[in-house]
Each structure stands twice: as C-alpha cells, then as structure tokens.
Known about the structure:
The chain has helices at residues 7-14, 18-26, 45-59, 64-72, 78-111, 118-122, 129-133, 145-154, 185-189, 228-238, 251-257, 259-264, 268-271, 278-285, 316-320, 323-328, 330-346, 348-353; strands at residues 5-6, 34-35, 41-43, 160-164, 177-181, 198-199, 213-219, 239-247, 288-291, 294-295, 361-362, 366-370.
Amino acid sequence: xxxxxxxxxxxxxxxxxxxxxxxxxxxxxxxxxxxxxxxxxxxxxxxxxxxxxxxxxxxxxxxxxxxxxxxxxxxxxxxxxxxxxxxxxxxxxxxxxxxxxxxxxxxxxxxxxxxxxxxxxxxxxxxxxxxxxxxxxxxxxxxxxxxxxxxxxxxxxxxxxxxxxxxxxxxxxxxxxxxxxxxxxxxxxxxxxxxxxxxxxxxxxxxxxxxxxxxxxxxxxxxxxxxxxxxxxxxxxxxxxxxxxxxxxxxxxxxxxxxxxxxxxxxxxxxxxxxxxxxxxxxxxxxxxxxxxxxxxxxxxxxxxxxxxxxxxxxxxxxxxxxxxxxxxxxxxxxxxxxxxxxxxxxxxxxxxxxxxxxxxxxxxxxxxxx
Length: 371
Ligand SMILES: C[S@@+](CC[C@H](N)C(=O)[O-])C[C@H]1O[C@@H](n2cnc3c(N)ncnc32)[C@H](O)[C@@H]1O
C-alpha cells in the first residue's frame, strides 16, 4: 500500500506551516488524496510532487491563482514542470548575479571616489515588463480564432514562420514550421509543452540571416518594443513576407473610439507619446494596413476585448493580463475602475453606451499590417 505522510510531517519537510497546508487544501490548490481513519489529512507521493511545484512557483513570485492554473494544466507533466522551474530559477539566479556584480562595481567605484553614470547605476537592475506581469498572462490570453484566421490567411503559403514577441505562442499557426523569438524569460517558460522552439532575443536585433524565413509575424507586441521601426525593419530583413497585428494610435480616432480610454482612462494618452504613426509602421515593412474588428465575445483577453462586456474590467485577474493597467500605474487604475464600477451600478454606462449592445463587432483601431 502507498505510504502517506501526515500534514505535520509534510509541513516539516517543506519548511511551511501546517496552516499554509490547510489553506492550500481549503482553496483547492493542494487537496491531500486521502484521510486517516481518524480524519486527518494524509499526503501521497503525488500530493508531495504537486506541493513541490506549488512551492517552486511561489518562490518565483507567482500568485496562488496563477499557480493553480499552471499545476492543473493536464498538458504539463512533472518533468515539464521541473524543466520550466529549472529554467526560471536559473534565469533568476543569473539576474541576481548580474545585480551583485553591478553592486560590487559601484562599491569599488565609490571607494575610489569615481562617480558612476545613470547607465552604470541602472545596468542589471531593469526587468522586462513581461518578467513582472507575465505570470498573470495565461489566465485570460489565448487564441481568438477569428483574429487567427485573418493572420494565418495573410501568411499565405509561407512554410517557415518567425513569430517575434511570441509570448506563450497564442497565434502560432499549427500547420507551419515556426520559430519563436521572445525576450522575457517568464514568457518563454510559460510556453506550452510542445510549442515551437523559442530563441531569447528582441525584435530590434534578430539573430538570423537575411531572408531566412518565408514570413515573419508579430502579434500584440510592437507597442512594447523600445524601437518599433527598427524591429519592423529587422522583420523585413529576415523574412520575405511580414504580418503584424498592431494598433492605430493616430490622434484622430483613438480618443473617441473606445469608451474605456475616453471616459475612464485618459492616462492612456501618456502611453502613446512617441509612438510612431501607423503610416510610419507600414512604411517600415513596405506594406498596407487593414482594420481588424474586435468581436463582442473576443476569446483573447486583450485590452479592447471586453468592449461589450464592461464588467470584465472590474476583475483584477482580467486587468493583470493587460499591460496597459500596469503601465498607467495604480492611482489611475484604481480611479478608472472605481468610476466604471459606479457607472455600471448607476446605469450611467448603459445610458451612454446603449448603442454598443446591438453590435457584434467594434472598430477599435486594431490593424493588420501586411507586406
Ligand atoms: C502582449 S504580449 C503578446 C504575446 C503574443 N504575441 C500573443 O499574442 O499572445 C507582448 C510580448 O512582447 C514581448 N516583447 C517586449 N519587448 C520586446 C522586444 N523588444 N522584442 C520582441 N518582443 C518583445 C513581451 O515580452 C511579451 O511577451
């Protein structure tokens, strides 16, 4: 018969309190598979393995809800979890080592009375935005089939496809040979088992020869690149065809298009400062832009996805998977959510936006750039 461990023994071995294990049980994160005849929790080898995964992701800063989604994923077996945890921990160790080295350099410079530049002070301390927010991404971000169909049609007969800023790979076509590029270690680690191989690099410097892919694609990522035009030119250089799903940030339009930014989050304007106009983006790839309407029941939880389901924006889990909220900062986020909540409760939102309820799609500035 399989040996089971008591809750006290498991707590002792794992270095957590019995209360923590009771809490994990209460929220369904780790329910021991059996009870002793006296009714006490008894943990099997499988329960212990699951606890190790929970504690590993916890150490890496994942929230309990995200951990539940990760450890419940039937496609990720124990070996895949170990490989993913290993990759994330190695990356965390390397980043800590880079910070220690930067501190040592600064201490040495100070001891010698040498001033350090802002660049030197900050080197090694920055983090990719998606290393911070990426853990919340899988909760609501997934393939929207109608957007995927547009993208895949635009890829034409391309057999080899480079996916730049690939994230967890939501829009990678299943019937072509895909290579992914993704700078965030957290996003790379969250790619599903069996996903296309992924290279750690940024769009602005793609480590590939000229024209080495039939097509290059980039989805919901260009607005994160420090130099979008340079990144798009790189895509143009390495591929025969370029397909980009992006956003028209030109001044006329976006302010009025979406009630969320118009009525609740004017701080969105600050995120667009310096963002190249659409025609500059299309020029960088030498292509054209086509509008992509957002379906009312969009499956991918992108910023515009819930235009006809406003209550969704009150949900913290939904907002955490949209970078806009982190980028505008907590005061703007809290105010916008409070105002929206009040307007939904009072009927003011419905009064202002009743015309939306009859629509199935909305034009919110999303664009497919094709070259
Ligand atoms: C909103 S996610 C989109 C991910 C994926 N394409 C999708 O549609 O689900 C944006 C991604 O862009 C990546 N990214 C940020 N800066 C980048 C850069 N300079 N080059 C390439 N990708 C970048 C982020 O790490 C993140 O994974």
